[in-house]
Design goal:
With about 180 residues, this protein is mainly α. It folds into two domains: about 45 residues, no CATH class; about 130 residues, no CATH class. It contains eight helices and no strands. α5 crosses α6 and α6 packs antiparallel against α8. It is globular, with a radius of gyration of 21 Å. The termini are far apart.
Length: about 180
């Protein structure tokens, strides 16, 4: 009987802690996220979607821009998961690499721009919690996280594009031999 009581108390305790966490978020990060989302959407409306689309097409011309600037703009302006729709500006052979770059960038951006991927903010906040317990500032961590992310998305984009090209050539060769 004591086991069931302990189990029930632990079970409800889990939800009570979840409620405390939720209230902490509602007082802290949620208002910030809402403001950021409003500002980003207003900026897109102010600049104009057509101009944003033209800029997106220009940033896909070169591989270095295609796997750095392009995913950064996509994640910042459209946030996760809408950022992947920027792939529509690319030819089919470049879409897998763009997706790989964009999906790899939704975590590193959260330190400076939490609106971009608020659903995964817990990853950054877990690391940030340890940093703040050491009485260290979060700014340098967020910047390093972002810069490391840019290097990673470039490498992933280039490697995935190379693999995709190899696979497409192999498939074309197999189709020609059939």
């Amino acid at each position: 009987m004591d086991f069931l009581i302990h189990l029930a108390e632990g079970f409800i305790g889990m939800f009570q802690e979840g409620g405390k966490t939720f209230l902490g978020l509602a007082k802290g990060i949620l208002p910030t996220l809402i403001c950021l989302i409003v500002i980003v959407n207003a900026l897109i409306q102010f600049v104009g979607e057509e101009r944003i689309f033209r800029l997106a097409q220009k940033t896909t011309k070169y591989a270095v821009l295609r796997y750095t600037i392009f995913p950064i703009l996509a994640v910042f302006f459209l946030t996760n998961p809408m950022c992947y729709t920027f792939g529509k500006f690319l030819p089919e052979k470049q879409k897998p690499a763009f997706y790989d770059s964009a999906v790899s960038f939704v975590h590193p951006i959260t330190g400076l721009f939490p609106h971009a991927n608020s659903a995964e903010l817990f990853v950054y906040l877990g690391i940030a919690n340890g940093i703040t317990k050491l009485n260290l500032p979060l700014g340098p961590l967020a910047v390093r996280f972002l810069l490391a992310g840019i290097v990673v998305i470039l490498i992933r984009g280039l490697v995935t594009e190379w693999i995709t090209n190899m696979m497409m050539k192999r498939k074309a060769a197999e189709a020609a031999n059939s």
